[in-house]
Known about the structure:
Layout: E1 2-6, H1 10-22, E2 26-30, H2 33-42, E3 47-50, H3 59-69, E4 74-79, H4 88-92, E5 96-100, H5 105-116
Parallel strand pairs: 1-2, 1-3, 3-4, 4-5
Amino acid sequence: MRILLVDDEEEFVTTLAERLTIRGVEAEFALSGQEALAKAEEKDYDLVVVDIKMPGIGGAEVMRRLEAKKPDQKFIVLTGHLEGFCDPEAAAAGRCFRLIKPTDIDTLMAMIQKIKGT
């Protein structure tokens, strides 16, 4: 499973990518919405884990643009804010999930495994 992590907190996202890689997940990261969109032009990702609150292009806009190109794209919204939940239609279809920061790696891995099984 190829995952793109999108978060403007560099230490957080690099550490998360390392921890996922140790667990056998192919994880790449982007430090901005713009960088995420550029990476998604180059590669196809099975799952995008995205923070909502970022400067410039925020997570909700990243999700909207990626869904426009790949309607079945799956997302985990990983945010420290209660707002910014997934689009209700995407959530109902099993394409979008939410975790509140901080979350532990085991919780994230469990969600990834659940999504991978769908």
